[in-house]
Structures are given as C-alpha cells and as structure tokens.
Design brief:
rod-shaped; mainly beta; 3 domains; glycoprotein; heparin binding; 29% strand; 4-stranded antiparallel β-sheet; Complement Module, domain 1; 2 helices
Length: 240
Amino acid sequence: MDCALLLLSLWALTRAVSPQFSGRTCPWPLPPSDNSVDRLLSPTHSFSALLEVRCKPGFTLPNGLDATIRRCQGDRQWSGDEPICADVYCQPPPEVEQGYVVAVQKTEYEVGFDIHFLCKKNFLLDGPQKITCQLNGSWSASPPHCRARCLIPAERSRVLIGGVKRWPFDVTDAMVPHGENVTFFCKHPRKQCSFTTTQTCFDGKLQPPSCYLEPTWLQYKLFPHRLVSEIEACEPGDVE
C-alpha cells in the first residue's frame, strides 16, 4: 500500500468513527504563501481531511523538514500551529589549512552564495576552487586542501621531471609541487646499466624508490660519468 492510499484509508476510517463531525469543513483554499505550497491530500476539505504544507525550494520548517501534514479538526481548524517556512542557510565551511577563504565572513550563508578558496604561497589547491550554498542547506562540495611541495630526495644524481633530465639543485628550491611525478634512476644489481622508477609528490611527502642509492660525494666528484643517472639504460629485457 503506497503512502497516498494509506492516507486516504485513514481519512475514511476517521470519518466513519466520528459521524457527528462529518458535515464540518476547514478553510480551503488557504491564502497563498510566498514560502510554501498547500496541497489537499483528501477528496474534500471536510472533517479529518489531510493537508500537506510543503516549503518551496530554499526554505525549511523549524524542525529541518521541508513538509508537514495537518488534519481538519472538529473545530473546523487545521491541526497544529501555522507552519512557517524560513530561509535555508549554510553553516560556515571548515577552515582550509594553509589556505584562505575569499568571502565575507558570516555566521551563516544564504542559498546561492559562493565561497572561493586560495592557497598560501608554495601550496597547491587540491579540490574545488569554489563551493556554493545549496537549497538543502549544504555546500556543493567539501572544501579543498592546500597541498605542500616536496623536497626532491636526491642530490648527486639527475632525475626526470616533466620528461626532462635535471639536477635537483637546478630546480627551484630543489622542490616539486604536489602531484608532480619524479622519475629516479636505479642501477641494475648485476649489470652496468640503469632503469627508472617514478614516484609522486603528495602533500609534502616524496620518498625515493627502494632501488635508488644516493651516490657518494667521491663518486659524484671523481666519476661523474659513472653516476647511475649517466650510465647506459638497460635493455627492456634486462629489467625484471
């Protein structure tokens, strides 16, 4: 049995057990409201009839619901207090660490209000740059994160960044932004050749692969052409 059929059954049952009120009616139609819509759920507006009051989009009842049911009583009045649909508001979003909220600071925000986010210098925005207060009182998305740069964990070996082979000290601050891929050169355990492994910077954390060994200062100074990033690449079949 669906909801509408159940309500009609309850209406008919109430009328059957209360014949003394069967001729009484409640006001209908009701005066129009800017914030809500009235809908009669029963065939007539007589005793025990059911009336739905539903808030329009962007409005809500004090209990947080968007609709309520009223019943026509024996005193010819609809049950309960007159429903009041008030404006929906969104609560301030959480603060973004290492970021800024670009909006007027308020205790609550009206539907349709946009909040923009920016990150501090050297931090990368990860997530939506803008969120909007929705009709249901929630934000269109969770606030973003401001992700930190990563220090390249290599000093005496070149790495690949954006497909370009570079010394870490030639990169600004020897750091890469969040989400950047860094490819390291690893030496084959049995052959004089190298293979590559890629790691990704995530919010300030970038670990070298387990196969990477940092060349010593003597290797770097005395045998630069033998550094792992400078020797011949292994054949595809050599890498397990």
